[in-house]
Amino acid sequence: MRKNILNFIVTIILALILSQFLPWGSVMAASFITALLVSLKRSAVFFVPFLAIAILWMTHAFWLSNANDFILAKKIANLLPLGGNAYLLILVTGIIGGLSAGISGVFGKQCSQLLKKSR
Fold first, then answer.
1. Global pTM value
2. Higher local confidence (pLDDT), 115 or 50
3. DSSP string of 39-93?
């Protein structure tokens, strides 16, 4: 349980730092690096980075959209088949970010196992 919380916090902090300098794909680098440093077991390898980045992205999207009364979010939600629902767009944003981070976390775990076997 401690490793899960540590991985969650480190993933968020590293993603925040990397996102200041790199594009949106930096969340994948953050979850990859934390999967190399903090080993998790079973399904936590996917779900901990997924939840960390999904919560980070949804919070950030809500914060940015709330500043302009969700005007842009509603327009983009109209372009997508979301019926103009800005909150649903924020949810989809979190899921997309979470999936990319979760898959990257699994890849990081696989790479760490490869490195351990080669030693």
1. 0.90
2. 50
3. ---TTHHHHHHHHHHHHHHHHHHHHHHHTTTTHHHHHHHHHTTTTT-HHHHHHHH
